[in-house]
Amino acid sequence: MSKGLLHHIELYVSDLSRTVEFWGWLLEELGYTPFQKWESGQSWKLDATYIVFVQTEDRFLDIPYHRCRVGLNHLAFYATSRQHIDILTDQLKERNTKILYTNTHPYAGGDSHYAVYFEDPDRIKVELVAP
């Protein structure tokens, strides 16, 4: 393994089944494969890195996630091309996913940054970037 390579990311979620439906499709579109599954969590893996989603305990669901608070702002993943971004954007819209920055899409990150920004079921911002 390469020094500094990201090993895994673990996210607590408000509704595991809704999250698994959303992220399972997306991660598998990006080349991840199902990795681990247990009663309160599930993960997907790409090469040596994996992403884990765990059901938040009821006692901690009182304050919802917000990306502008201290903590994670967003996750960004590479797509394979601009065409891949366009296809995934259409698929996200078909799934009624909230697309962000629609007035500047697909250049919301700047004139040379082709991407789509959207929210997962807990409103975690996700970015897909063309190489």
Give the SSE map.
Blueprint: E1 8-13, H1 16-29, E2 33-38, E3 41-46, E4 49-55, E5 74-78, H2 82-94, E6 99-100, E7 115-119, E8 125-129
Parallel strand pairs: 1-4, 5-8
Antiparallel strand pairs: 2-3, 3-4, 6-7, 7-8
Fill in the keyword field for this structure.
single chain, 131 residues, alpha/beta, 4-stranded mixed beta sheet, 8 strands, 21% helix, 32% strand
Structure description:
The chain is an alpha/beta fold and 131 residues long. It is 21% helix and 32% strand. The protein is built from 2 helices and 8 strands; from the N terminus they run βαββββαβββ. The chain has a 4-stranded mixed β-sheet with strand order 1-4-3-2, with helices on one face. The chain has a 4-stranded mixed β-sheet with strand order 5-8-7-6, with helices on one face. Strand 3 and strand 4 form a beta hairpin. The radius of gyration is 15 Å and the shape is globular. The relative contact order is 0.19.
